[in-house]
């Protein structure tokens, strides 16, 4: 695991270049001519006479035109260059340490096996190294990009990380810097001789004129200026340093990312703490401002509180429903009342029309009525055609009756009108009251709605906290099914696994879940389902498969077409969630697929694959121009996967790689817009099938396979270092050390959730690799628990 890797690949034999050949080609200065005899440690723990390149005495001359970056760095820094007795003592002490560590952590192997190591210099720089046939090389990935002989003097200037990458984290040694004892003139001279780099600079001082500055790299960078009057390098005051162009640029970067942070000297002070790394400075600020981790640890009361809140939310749910029913009833009542008012208004206007007609009739009758006849005198003669007295009397009576009727009718109409007016007034009042109560209910409903939303948000937060308490990184162990091999695994409980070899060695490991070899794809997926749900709520989720080649990583993640693995199931589950929540949220899902091969990131959704670059963006990294394909159905998911797979085959043929030598990463962004309050949630699901974690075998340790193995070793080590830093709650998490950790950064740490599948082979012949994988998983699991407790119980019969 991690720093030591071996692979068996017989395909590439035609193009095999041995390490010695490769170095002869790579170092025109003639590596073989510059060899000397010295004692070097063997992995078996013995010392033997071997040839090693003469590096300390011949410094850069043996590297010819490929003068290594490391040598340049060393010569430019104020350190001792000569090989001393102190150095030899350091070499021997290292060798003794390596010998004793090998006994404990690494199984003895053949004499000239390739062993990968990481060398960390006291100033923090890291180099990938390989050790074979008693010779150690380092990968000069700054300048020549080739393997260079490991300089002798470096033994005194750093330490190796070997064996278990996580376990080695505690082996920090505080080697004292060689800088002590060197005069400032020598230091100044070294700086003058060094090649021009961005650490050199000048500042114009109003009294002292132009002053030379140099950004020293110690444990942390320290920006100093050379003071000729005292002959010493002095630390630059904040005010001066703010004038330096490089520093100005860094401060500007932080200011741009954090516009609220206006105090430039404070920013610079924080930059100093963060070793002049603006990204780190930004993340430090955000960490201190918002980080949940700074909150006091949760107690068991939290769980009770969560339950109580859940109950409250349910009650509120019921109340909302009953209020909605009530509101509907009241709305119906209001509509009825409105209809009644309308019909009454119609009746009223009808009656008004009728009464108007009646009045008109009466007026017409009054106008046509004959004048009252004068009383008849005896002299009068009844003219012809005139009415008789009796007739007139009866006419009078009728007229009087008509008058009476008219008066009565008028009275009735007036009364009716009055009654109608009162009714209309009453109806209006009722309608007004109904309207008011409607507004009241609406207000109440709105309040309850917002309360409900707040509660459900709080529920999600508490659910998230509960998940955090259970562990943000959950580790599952899945052994491959293989009935033809001699098994080395037993399963004492659902959380424990015992691994034993033919010598009777036994190791027990604990995980969040240990699947049996017979576990189905459905059973494996069931445990990740709740975590995936939270992706739709806007959380970053990551599922990683780690293990040696052939241990079932691809089977677990992708699976066969008829029995798919986690990838298809997770995406289908998310589509289901989106559909279920369609009433309240509108979701949009986009997918990208990339492959990391030899530290190059390849976009697999472009025909034949295209190399893309990672760019730092605030505290995270983004990939400008990366293809994103929207998905809306299971068929679309399958189509995208097929395209990715086809392009991966073409790309790997082009690069002469195999799928097990690269990491495959599937990235899905899911954006949901709340229909009620318009809130937007953005989650990310990262599904990662890592390259095989096994060690390199002797026969395959050449040419391209060697570079591949170094790249895999580097990225898996970086992943282990990130877990390690998270486990020990370090301020600086070394995400930058590999492309893999840069891409996985949003899903590791913070409030992201990760599930790590450690895939193992049940075969007893794979016992050492299986133990390495299980140890990686155990260490990753401790990140979740936040404890430095060792989960591995070692037993010997
Ligand atoms: N749980 C399982 N049940 C049945 N067959 C399995 C299981 N796990 C793995 N296999 C089979 O084992 C073989 C190797 O598995 P797989 O390709 O998934 O390994 P891997 O770790 O992804 O290897 P590589 O690193 O080369 O990609 C495949 O043929 C696969 O079908």
From TrEMBL:
Binding residues annotated for ATP, in chain numbering: 547-554
Domain Kinesin motor: 472-783
Listed transmembrane segments: none
GO cellular component: microtubule
Broad class of where this protein is predominantly found: cytoplasm
Keyword Repeat: no
Compartmental location: Cytoplasm, Cytoskeleton
Annotated region (Disordered), positions in chain: 1-109, 169-205, 363-385
Biased composition annotated in UniProt, kind: Polar residues: 14-27
Low complexity bias spans: 169-180
Pfam family, one: Kinesin
Stretches assigned to coiled coil: 313-354
GO terms classed as biological process: microtubule-based movement
Compositional bias annotation for Basic and acidic residues: 46-61, 93-104, 192-203
PANTHER family: KINESIN-LIKE PROTEIN, KINESIN-LIKE PROTEIN KLP-3
Recorded family membership: Belongs to the TRAFAC class myosin-kinesin ATPase superfamily. Kinesin family.
Protein name per UniProt: Kinesin-like protein
Organism: Lottia gigantea (Giant owl limpet)
Source organism phylogeny: Eukaryota, Metazoa, Spiralia, Lophotrochozoa, Mollusca
